[in-house]
From TrEMBL:
<dbReference type="InterPro" id="IPR000863">
    <property type="entry name" value="Sulfotransferase_dom"/>
</dbReference>
<feature type="domain" description="Sulfotransferase">
    <location>
        <begin position="15"/>
        <end position="209"/>
    </location>
</feature>
<keyword id="KW-0808">Transferase</keyword>
<dbReference type="Pfam" id="PF00685">
    <property type="entry name" value="Sulfotransfer_1"/>
</dbReference>
<comment type="similarity">
    <text>Belongs to the sulfotransferase 1 family.</text>
</comment>
<dbReference type="GO" id="GO:0008146">
    <property type="term" value="F:sulfotransferase activity"/>
</dbReference>
<dbReference type="InterPro" id="IPR027417">
    <property type="entry name" value="P-loop_NTPase"/>
</dbReference>
<protein>
    <submittedName>
        <fullName>Sulfotransferase domain-containing protein</fullName>
    </submittedName>
</protein>
Amino acid sequence: MGGIHPARPASGSHRSAAFPRFLKTHLHPQALPWHREWKYIYLARDGRDVGLSLYNHIRTMAEEITAAGKPVPPVHSIPADFGTFWDQWVETGKPRWDFWGNVASWWQIRHQPNVLLLHYADLTRNKPQEAERIAHFLGCEWDASICGLVCEKSSLEYMRQLELAGKLGSPDKNKQKTGLVNKGGNGRWKDLLTEQQLKRYAAIAAHKLEPACAEWLHHGGHIG
């Protein structure tokens, strides 16, 4: 579909692309076309992990843009200090999207038959099980051989190698480090956020999300 971050949508690419066709986006469901025959998969992650992952991603992208001799756009301009970035992001979502509103909007439609909500923690705990859930949701065939292939090609190491080879993210084949695929671990924020910041995060989650949604966002698990 024109790359992960195409400069502009390729005209008619969604119609000419081979099956299965997919679109990856960070949009709210209200901003997307809605068709009953389409399948929508939403992947959520603990907001504390999201904040740190986003910070590292933006910093790396800004470094690459600077190294290329280009001006850094506002969407990639963030404070050098993670704590300062965090305080702004957790309250407003800047410089990107409204994290809390995004989670809440997908949670509201979780029981739609063509919607599947997944949690990053579940994928890391038991990828084969979650991959099978996705396959059944999409109506795809599934067996042990397919499971092994899917788990291998969705591994962080495999995707890092693709990015370094210029086959994922930017087409630069001389990358020395990955910017799109980082460590992928959970809980790395524990040594970076203060007790006050964690309390503020919990307070915002309680205010912005339904109790069951906040609990799910924190721990994961299948939604009944």
